[in-house]
Amino acid sequence: MKSMDLFFIVLKCFGALALFIYGMKTMSEGIQKLAGKNLRSTLNRLTNNRVTSIFTGLLTTGLVQSSSAISVLVVGFVHAGIIKLRQAMGVIMGANIGTTSTAVLVTALGFTNYSINTLALPMVALGLPLLFSKKDSHRSLSSFLIGFSILLLSIEFLRDAIPGIDLDAVSFVENISSAWWLSSIAFILTGFILTLLLQSSSATMALTLVLCEQEAITLEFAGLMVVGANIGTTITANIAAVIANAHGKRVARFHSLFNIIGALWFVPALAWMIRVVTNGIHSFNLGMEMGFEIEKWILVILHISFNVITTLLIIPFVPALESWLEKWIQPKTAKDEKYSLEYIDSGVMKTPELALLEVTREITKLAKESAANCKKVSRLLETTDRAIQEEILAEIRQHEAATDKAEEEVTKYLSRLTEDVISNETSLKVGRLLSIINDIETIGDLYYQITKIFDRKIEKEIYFLPNQRDGIKSMIDLLEEANQLMINNMLHQEGRTDNLEHAYRLESAINKKRNSLRKLHLKGIESGDFNIKSAMVFSELYTSIERIGDHVLKINEAHAGIMS
């Protein structure tokens, strides 16, 4: 075979694989948009129960059709402190099982005896008119139908490209098959490298099925390529974890560890597994001779078995693995240990539903940190230890810098998201999130102003009288209650207005307390009980606290869908 001919054949194969990935991406986006709030609520059901977490990963990956997207999302959640490592480990195991659903669909509909055009072209005919519908659900269904039809057509192109390969070009298989360990490593590496290049284990699986169909490789070697593809799909999460903290890195390493453990038991047992599965299929297909019609399902069952059995083997050892990962991956610095919000975009293309879910959770985490500053101000009033005061002030200033950066990143991220055509519902939610992050950033600025007030108080050695201190603390107590209500609201589905009356009552109580402290302030100056420096610091402090309460209320309103 001429080198130029081989080049065009390889180019055709990669073109078909690129079309497969594009079709899968379009189909995945359509599914996610159709799933909508159901996808968000499913991801929200994460618990410490490892079995529930596994089913969460399985269901969400079945919807999204991408274990890489789910694993990267989980790395980001653990990095941000939204979920714990043990929860994430369960989701990762479930995601590995869930991703096999793509292989089942591809095998059932893409490798049939009839022409793929019989199914794919009518799907395009049905989907195209829906693309111009005014309803978001119709356009999402269109994306699913067209994406899936492109995926099926890409398999047809791939099958047409492979027969042109001179099978002598793969004769190296015969040369290394006598060395079992060498051939195993070669085909595992082949599956790994293909998945690394294509960023899709499903695309590698499709190529492996085509090679089996054309008898370019044996079923055992195909099984080894599936092992390599499973390991290769973990690379995306590990890339995302490069800029994550120690917590996020542990999740990515577990994803790799899961598939390596799977390879350790699966490779030695592969020949036996093929015999068992073959005998099982023959028991339901009496009289059928061994051929691709059976081999394709053997390969799919092996793919499913790899993930299911590995999950069953690992489940009892999750606590031990969690402890080992925590000892293995130690934080290099205090900053690395602390949950942070240093990045939002994980580098994996997400649909609006997944993107907004990630932003919402990160904003909620930032709101929790903002609420924690309220207690820090209370501690500043209680302590006279200069070292403790300086430590608290530094923490508040650090949070203010984080909120500035967070607002900038969230705004950029949501701006990129809105560059594409999005639904009216998504557009409204983007507006609410932008409003909330803006209020959180403003609250951070107000807390920073409070640190400047305390700087002057400490430097000038200004002390509050008991009635001043008690007045500020009672105002902080009301603000803490308002903060807790805000966080509770943000942890639940947006659009709820049932807690708004409570939020209004708390904001009114904060305003009344501000008014009473203002009267105390004026009375203290008139009577001479307060010196002028103490009075000014006192006035600035209760004014700042009241302004924080205003923005906490605005966050509650925005979350409920009321934009002021």
From TrEMBL:
Keywords carried by this UniProt record: Cell membrane, Coiled coil, Membrane, Transmembrane, Transmembrane helix
Coiled coil ranges (UniProt) are 389-416
Q: Is the Kinase keyword given for this protein?
A: no
Topology within the bilayer:
Multi-pass membrane protein
Give yes or no: UniProt keyword Cell membrane: yes
Q: Name one Pfam family in it.
A: PhoU
Single GO biological process annotation from the record: sodium-dependent phosphate transport
Q: Which NCBIfam families match?
A: Na_Pi_symport
**What is the protein name stated in its UniProt record?**
Na/Pi cotransporter family protein
Tell me the classification of the organism that encodes this protein.
Bacteria, Pseudomonadati, Bacteroidota, Flavobacteriia, Flavobacteriales
